[in-house]
Amino acid sequence: MNIRESMNMALIEQEVEKREQILAYYPELEINPESIKIVMINEIVADQPENDFYSMSQEKSPYIEAAQHLFSQAGIQIESIEDLLKMGIYVTSAIKLPKTETTINNEQIKQSCPILESELELFPSVQAIMLNGDVPKKVFNNITKKQTGKNAVPATSTYKLRNSEVFYGQVRIFPAYIMTGKNILIEKSKVVMTAEDIQKMLAFVQ
Questions:
Q1: pLDDT band at 135, cuts 50/70/90?
Q2: What does the pLDDT look like over 136-169, one tens digit per residue?
Q3: Smallest Cα–Cα separation from 88: which of 206, 191, 173?
Q4: Domains of the chain, with CATH numbers?
Q5: What average pLDDT does the segment 116-144 reach?
Q6: DSSP the chain
Q7: How far is CA 36 from CA 31, 46, 90, 180, 182, in A?
């Protein structure tokens, strides 16, 4: 399966505006969808595709560096996003276009829900989903509320949720802190906790 081609079809069906801009953030990679056991959902795409997770730039992008740092803290060395895919981990973002303001508004969340929903449907063998930040939690809850009538993730702090087991059907949900942005350089305790959550998630899937 080519991820970008598959998402292009979904965006055409949904008649999504700015389709080409959104597609630029998806990788033109062939992967076996059955091999993906974990999905990590970041808050928002980078300011431009070359700075995102699936950058084709010769230089390592800030988003890849952030993922590399988190996994290194969890005791796992990766060199590229392809290394994560080989491990059965697919990384994406909840909000599919860059910020135009300092905060993410409800309209952006609403527009992103059907896109992320279609994206998650590409991977039928997922056992765990990590929600890296409050925005992914909101988007995911909107999706699950549409499907089941209720939120999958309780409305409580991430700190408290980290110590409880949250499931959506058979899929374990891991609420965690953000994985990109300048804050992760400042709030080092949250980096440590996210690394711990990555370890827990990998142990659960294995």
A1: very high
A2: 999 999 999 999 999 999 988 898 898 889 999 9
A3: 206
A4: 3-205 (3.40.470.10)
A5: 97
A6: -BHHHHHHHHHHHHT-TTHHHHHTTS---B--GGG--EEEEEEE--SSGGGSTT--SSSPPHHHHHHHHHHHHTT---SSHHHHHHTTEEEEEEE-S--SSSS--HHHHHHHHHHHHHHHTT-TT--EEEEESHHHHHHHHHHHHHHHSS-SS-SS-HHHHTTS-EEETTEEEEEE---SSTHHHH-HHHHHHHHHHHHHHHHHH-
A7: 9, 23, 6, 22, 29
**Residue 124 CA, distance from chain mean position:** 16
